[in-house]
Amino acid sequence: MSDTSTQGIRRPDLSDGRIRRRYAAERRFRFYGMFAVGLAIAMLAVLLVSVCSKGYSAFYRTEIGLDVVLDPAVITPDGKKDADTLANADYQGLVKDTLKNAFPEVTSRADRKLLYALVSNGAGDTIRQAVLSDPSVIGSTKRFWVVAADDIDMLKKGFIKRDVAEAERVVPDSQISWFDKLAANNQIKTTFNSTFLSAGDSREPEQAGVLGALMGSIFTMLVTVLLALPLGVMSAIYLEEFAPKNRLTEIIEVNINNLAAVPSIVFGLLGLAVLLGVFGLPRSAPLVGGMVLALMTLPTIIIATRAALKAVPPSIREAAYGIGASSLQVVTHHVLPLATPGIMTGAIIGLARALGESAPLLMIGMVAFIVDVPHGPTDPATVLPVQIYLWADSPERAFVEKTSAGIMVLLAFLISMNAIAIFVRRRFERRW
Amino acid sequence: MNAISPSLAKMHGRKVTVHYGPKQALFDVDLDVPERMVTALIGPSGCGKSTFLRCLNRMNDVIDGCKVGGEITLDGQDIYDQKLDVVMLRARIGMVFQKPNPFPKSIYDNVAYGPRIHGMAGTKGELDEIVRSSLEKAGLWNEVKERLDQPGTGLSGGQQQRLCIARAIAVSPEVILMDEPCSALDPIATAKIEELIDELRENFTIVIVTHSMQQAARVSQKTAFFHLGHLIEWGDTEQIFTSPKDERTQGYITGRFG
Amino acid sequence: MLPAQSARNRAGLGLPSISAVVFGAVLALGALLPQAAAAREQLHIVGSSTVYPFATAVAEHFAQEGFKAPVVESTGTGGGLKLFCGGVGEGFPDIANASRPIKEGEVEACKQNGVTDIVEVEIGYDGIVLAAGKGGAPRALTVRDLYLALAKEVPVNGVLLANPYKLWSEVNPGLPADRIEVLGPPPTSGTRDAFLELVMDKACHTFPEIAALTDEKVKKAKCQTLREDGAYIDAGENDNLIVQKLAANPVAFGILGYSFLADNQDMLQGSAMDGVTPTEDNIINGSYEVARKLYLYVKKQHSDVVPGLAEFVAEFMSEKASGTQGYLTDKGMVPMPEAEHAAVSTAVLAALPIASSLGAVLDLGATSALLPWIAGGLLLLLSSVGFQLGRRRAFASVRGATRQLHSLPSYHGVYVGLGAFLPGALALLLGAVTAHYLPGDPKAGHDVIWAAIAAATLGAAAIGLAWAQRHVSANFRARNAVEKMTMILLVVCSLLSILTTVGIVLSLVFEAMRFFAQVSPLEFLFGLQWSPQMAIRADQVGQSGAFGAIPVFAGTILITIIAMIVAVPVGLMSAIYLSDYASRKTRAWAKPLIEILAGIPTVVYGFFAALTVAPLIRGMGASVGLDVASESALAAGLVMGVMIIPFISSLSDDVMNAVPQAMRDGSFALGATKSETIRQVVVPAALPGIMGGVLLAVSRAIGETMIVVMAAGLTANLTANPLEAVTTVTVQIVTLLVGDQEFDSPKTLAAFALGLALFVVTLILNIVALRIVKKYREQYE
Predict the structure, then answer these.
(1) pLDDT class for B119, splitting at 50, 70, 90?
(2) Distance from chain centroid for Cα C50
(3) A79, C35, C67, C555: least surrounded by Cβ within 10 Å?
(4) A1 Cβ under 8 Å from any chain B Cβ
(5) CB of A398 closer than 8 Å to CB of A208
């Protein structure tokens, strides 16, 4: 031992100043932590609030009430009232005539064009449907509430400011004055925008809806579930329960972990080169999109399933072996049922991720303009996130609220999927 | 109970109780820790001896739901006083744990950690000096002086434990608490630690929890016997081991239970 | 498919039911595949981005009249014609939109693939305009000014030199001294073709130095090659994007179709060209000369392949669509004069008569589509018959005394069922593949082929069933046989992940090899210039193209670094606060809230970055006098950082929790405060694990696509300034592939080379990161 007496015993510096400094540092550090948590949550709040505040207005729309003369000379020029004639009549022309008559002072070609632009391109549809459902109305004058054009809708909602100089405003003064006149006559109203939830895509913001993309997403997810769930669960069962520990299974394991972190766009390239290029599958189909997303989700499901299988205590396996069950029976009768809640939770979370995914789908032609709502996984379709991407890229001001509203629909789906996952976990998951 | 005179006692415990949530772990323990002596706490598993030890430097604060009652003083000052700062307290009362827990840093940094946070060295030279003398006191200097920059986790179990002791004495505490410091070590390493404890007694007040009655007999001057959360008996080690007053103590040291 | 089972048999239920689900799923998809390749009911339209808004508008009106709405893709005129000329049949588009007439080479290519009957339809005009944001003063240009400003080589004092001009005033002293900055479409675009011909070519021939050239090819190359030093900016296929960029940058010009100018009168102003302003009237009467016709190319051979082809064209050419007052004029198309329009529509109606065969086409489609389903359904039926048969036979073989059976009856059932299913499914699959690749017109004989396939499927299944059920006896080890088959199935499933990796590697490597056959790997890896504007058709003169990927990688790294600067401190500090400071209650709600950030789709972040964050940063920059690009790396990086926060926080939380409590105790016992313990003991101890987590997050940031596609730029600037626009690997992959489907131009192949680079880099990061994390875990176990 050393000679301790040669050194004076040093005491820790416990002076008040130093302790205070240390505690100040402690508080600062704690504050940084709180700040970081606050920042992250604030970001989330800003994101959600900005989306919702931009998007809620897409759920209602402006309509213009017009007293349309259902002139037989326009609707049935040759006197026949067959369905074909009624369907193909120029109803938009009727709407335009009504506007022309309501504002007789508008005469120049350019001004007329602006006047007609008050109503949506699809305004004639409202009348077409009324006439088709009851042809006897032909000849009468009826008030129809037709959808206003997107710019007018924006004006009504206040996104297009009246106090901006006319040259910098999409809606010219003339249109505003006509609009005000209509409003003064109680010919403007705001209603729930049912089109948004019941229509496919459109180039006209006021006619665009999410249903097409929503159905596309559902079909795509259906294909993904059908492929990824059985394949993922079976791979996991093999790897966790049966696989011998050798070089091959080791490679498979490393490979699965890596696949889980491969950028999603690379899966899109795989789909483009193999599914479209080699197998010649159709572009823009949910079937192909579902396959690509299934390959992407597979590693997630495998990893989650393995974790769920691992959580089943060995004692249960031993008990089953003890009464002479084969190894496959042990797994299918005992382990798998017990692991099901865990597997379901993992699968739902994996699918939620796939639902929000868009990059790989851009690679396989799911970015087309598709009006019709798809009826099956082989109909051309797009999906919600891609629809959001398409709308976000559109120049019309009105698509900003559509995009945000589309995001709200997508988030609602994701939240409900995650809620189900949490419910399954809370309700069924056993802890040993 | 033969309380020693307060002037000799470094720490006093009066009616110390501990609750872990709803469960009470210690019942009204009165114990004095005499200065510059080794006090051994013995007893069967779960008797509360480690819990009591951890009360002495408020390590129980870290545990959720742990509540300490009664009074414990260091040099007459209540260590559970609101005004008393736990950081300052722990600078005066060091601790060595059951399993050696060197930080994943170099040997040098392990020992220098305490002096650094407490601002004990103004210069690099002073710090070097503290590290050297602490390692010397812990009897490790000659074994590690060539490789101070290597990780402390690379040492053998016994060396690691001595490193932890060096780390504790580097901040020159007044009391060192040792929680079964040898239970993870082989007999040779244990012998070295015991030897070390005996030497440290000259400068430090030591409280040691041990499972081994032989160890308690070898290194301690005072011994306290705990059972089911109660302090059954305490006094001079020799007296406890030769003529215990309580029959439970008698039963334990003769190996009838525990 | 499974009948009600006795309690005795239920023990064997697990396995058959799982197999049933799996086989059912596989079969359903198998049956969908041929169906997908079969009947297409709606028109498929590809081509020019200029015609795209018109085609989509007509498509919508067409749909309102009761037809299936056509699917319209914006692929550029060149890309569209390439797809269009790919062949005849449902797999190929019916109509190609073009903003220039089809070229001879393209007609030739069409012929080679059997597309012989093409109808050309003129639909209207589009002017090419030079537009600028409303911010600047209106400018009058001449085609000569433009040529001198934009050509790669220009005549200077009698010799052709690399373009020396940086400012408009150098080109023409009458113009202001603004930087030359012109955003224009890429080589696949018809707008660009038209610009080269109507402006560059025209102006260039007025110079004696060019006229003196004798070789026509050289002449054309000199006239039509645009400069590549940044004055001309390839702004991608998306004209809307150009509009937005112009609005943000008053000195820049954009080369656009007139319709975009018309659509965005409030943001843009057109420049007069040779003294004539671009207006609808000037374009119709021909005084504004930089105008071109727009076309549809219709594959007449498809009139009986897809319903509604002639009707769609008739709608397009109707008065209410493309007439002088038609709805297409609202979309910005310049209509033909009335007489011309009438003449064209009559001619088109004659060339493409509206047939009455619509119903027949639909009928054929319906049965054809059903046949594969019928075949699949019959197979399932036969398999379940096999299951019943096997079970009954097993019962019968021991007269109901099932204890004498080696295996439960249901195993015998599954054995026989599989015996029927496997050969049947194999036959179905092979049949579907053969039918798909059968040469010739797939529609003709579709029903015959599928009838044959169905027969073969059922035959194979019946033979298999007969063979399998002969095995059923008391001593037959049906369970072992079934389990062996199941085990093989399980192994095959787990090999699928390897197959996926192999597929990824092969597809990337294969296409990348073809790229590297044309572009040296050294140039790709170390080249400092990225402008993939290579001529994609033999008859088109384009730029030489540069494929140096360094600026692209640098952009990726810049954005990743910004993201990490946000995510690492915030993520780490959040993890520390939540695990060591926050009360249990706070943790319970704060942790899931932060994790929501990871679950939000990236397209939402992209929208947020482009619409909220980028303008905010731009505004803040402007208020302190900084010039921030509208698509700054900062905006994309910040938002990506927010997305990454939960990855870092949950991973660091994991690893810090793995640091044993003893370490913390050791530090506390020395009198360290909590923060001292965390900073000096816990974090250093957890550092390898945290590093692993950060690496995983980096790999994620590098591979992230949507945020950067929506919020980052397209031009590959080699810069470290976060306020400038940069591009990333993923952005380039998307822009190179979306809207241009040719599989042989280096431009497209470059996407695969980038994909390969991306895959390799993220793979290395992942392997290293997972290794580190694993090692770290083992250290404390």
Answers:
(1) confident
(2) 20
(3) A79
(4) yes
(5) no
Mutate to test the interface with A, among B88, B133, B143, B200 (most CBs of A within 10 A): B133
Q: Mean pLDDT throughout A140-150?
A: 89
Name the residue among B64, B88, B94 with its Cβ closest to that of C669: B94
Q: Rounded to a whole number, what is the distance in Å from the CA of C736 to chain A's nearest CA?
A: 10
Q: What is the pLDDT of residues B237-247, one digit of tens each?
A: 999 999 898 88
In-domain check, residue B141: no
B240 found inside a domain: yes
Mean pLDDT of chain B: 88
Interhelix angle C478-518/A247-259, rounded to 10 degrees, is 60
**CA contacts within 13 A on the Cβ side of C133:** 17
pLDDT score of C303 more than 90: no
Which residue among B91, B103, B118 sits closest to C666, beta carbon to beta carbon? B103
Domain map (residue ranges) of chain A: 14-55, 59-192, 211-428
Chain B residues with CB under 8 Å of A13 CB are 118-120
C486 interface with A at CB cutoff 8 Å = yes
CATH no. for residue B82? 3.40.50.300
Residue with tokens 């042990």: A330
Average pLDDT over every residue of B195-205:
91
DSSP state of C678: I
State whether B101 and C671 contact (CB < 8 Å). Answer: no
Alpha-carbon span C473 to C485, nearest angstrom: 19
Greatest mean pLDDT among A163-177, B180-194, C262-276 lies in B180-194
- Could you say which residues from 195 to 214 on chain A have a Cβ atom under 8 Å away from some Cβ of chain C? 200, 202-204, 207
Chain B within 8 Å of A14 (Cβ-Cβ)?
yes
Q: Of the ranges A8-22, A201-215, A317-331, C469-483, which is most confident?
A: A201-215
Cα of first residue to Cα of last residue in chain C, in angstroms, is 49
B100 conformational bin, left if phi > 0, alpha if psi -120 to 50, beta if neither: beta
Residue C331 has pLDDT above 60, yes or no: yes
The percent of residues above 90 in pLDDT, for chain C, comes to: 11
Amino acid identity, residue C54?
F
What are the pLDDT digits (tens) for A308-350?
998 888 888 888 888 878 888 888 888 888 888 888 888 888 8
Residue B138: inside a domain, yes or no? no
Q: Is residue B109 part of a domain?
A: no
Cβ contacts of C289 within 8 Å, gap of 6 or more: C198, C273, C274, C276
* C581 and B CB contact within 8 Å: no
Give every CB contact of residue B194 below 8 A, 6+ residues apart in sequence. B182, B215, B218, B219
* Total of domains in chain B: 1
- Looking at the DSSP bridge assignments, the partners of residue C131 are C254, C270
Which residues have CB under 8 Å from B7's CB, separation 6+? none
CATH H-level, domain A211-428: superfamily = MetI-like (1.10.3720.10)
Mean pLDDT value across residues A288-308: 92
Q: Is the pLDDT of residue A276 over 60?
A: yes
The distance of Cα C672 from the centroid of its chain, to the nearest Å, equals 55
pLDDT at C166: 84
Rounded distance, CA B244 to CA B242, Å? 6
Give the Cβ contact number of residue C760 at 10 Å: 12
Least confident of A177-191, A243-257, C9-23, C276-290: C9-23
All structural domains of chain C, each given as residue ranges with its CATH number in brackets, are 7-38+359-498 (no CATH), 44-123+294-357 (3.40.190.10), 125-291 (3.40.190.10), 553-742 (1.10.3720.10)
Facing C497 at nearest CB: one of A256, A263, A400: A256
Residue of chain B nearest A10, judged by CA positions:
B172
Cβ contacts of C186 within 8 Å, gap of 6 or more: C76, C192, C234, C235, C236, C237, C533
